[in-house]
Specification:
about 90 residues; mainly beta; 3-stranded antiparallel beta sheet; 1 helix; elongated
């Protein structure tokens, strides 16, 4: 099954190399399918996702909130999540 829409988000990891703490920023993706939303570590069926909202953190970053029956998951995105949210809401209406 092919995904309908994807949303890039930033994941920060802290590493220690040569006695120095480094912060590495990695890009990962959320994928919207006809029946689920998939993250690199988890998968939620559409009935398990209650809503998706956003809040601008700064001019450069936005929080994307994935409201699920297990709680709220927060993702930091650089690009606008509006398309991802609108596709999700269309799928939820069906």
């Amino acid at each position: 099954m092919n995904w309908i829409c994807s949303q890039a988000y930033m994941k920060k990891e802290r590493l220690i190399e040569d006695n120095q703490q480094l912060t590495v920023e990695k890009e990962e993706y959320l994928y919207l399918y006809e029946d689920r939303i998939v993250t690199p570590k988890r998968s939620f069926t559409l009935p398990q996702v209650l809503d998706i909202t956003k809040k601008h953190l700064s001019a450069r970053y936005t929080f994307l909130y994935l409201h699920t029956i297990e709680g709220v998951l927060t993702y930091i995105v650089k690009s606008s999540p509006d398309l991802f949210i609108s596709h999700y809401r269309k799928m939820k209406e069906q």
